[in-house]
Amino acid sequence: MTTSIGIDVGSGCIKTVLFKTDGDNYEWVARRNDKIRQRDPKELARRAYDEVLEEAGLKESEVQYTATTGDGENIEFSTGHFYSMTTHARGAIYLNPESRSVLDMGALNGRAVKMDEHGKVLTYRMTSQCASGSGQFLENISRYLGIAQNEIGELSKQADNPEDVSSICAVLAETDVINMVSRGISAPNILRGIHDSMAGRLVKLLRVIKANEGVTFLSGGLALDEGLMDSINASMVKMKIPTKAVNHPDSPYAGAIGAAIWGAYRY
């Protein structure tokens, strides 16, 4: 039995999970998802680490491997570090064994990963540095519209005439939204237009990596946005990509899960 902890340090949140592994059997024991909010990521990661240990009733000496991923390579108490594409691929397999590709949609960028049934990465592609396909961009738009982030997906699904958002630059896209509001475009139609624009950019990555088997698993901070998932699936049909985008209630933890599992394997 191996006890391992996975810590996924993102741009907006730190996800921490504790697993007990016995061969191919995994037991998820504890988890945390903490927003950084201008706090020191190193201090926040340490606190999350201590709290999952407390939740599991374990001592630090009882952990065989602490694995970091994302921006966590400078976490001093970790045992080792894994690349994000590797951890999200393995976490996706754990949460949905039919996954053969992943769309990791984070605060600052998006990434498409193709993997085999064991979580081995075959190829990947990322969005550009521009933030218009990211969680931070969508958060800024929702703040401007006065809408809570957990309401975005449902509102987007209520759209009856989505407004076209063509700008690939986040600054210009935000200007587009300001103009839409001044023209009286409804929030659902604005949000669906934004989702469709984001989905188009993300699905192009899937086309490049030739995601044509199993299902495409959504991970990262935007994975539970049902409106965005609808737009992604519609865009996949339009681009004739023969897979379906799916999520899981624990999709945001995929990177941390993969880190914990790979850590146990490395140990």
From TrEMBL:
Keywords: Iron, Iron-sulfur, Metal-binding
Every ATPase BadF/BadG/BcrA/BcrD type domain range: 5-263
GO molecular function, one term: metal ion binding
Needed cofactors: [4Fe-4S] cluster
Alphabetical list of InterPro entries matching this protein: ATPase_BadF, ATPase_NBD, Benzoyl_CoA_Rdtase_D, CoA_E_activase_dom, Dehydratase_Activator_Redct
Pfam families: BcrAD_BadFG
Name of the protein described by the UniProt record: Benzoyl-CoA reductase subunit D
Natural source organism: Sedimenticola selenatireducens
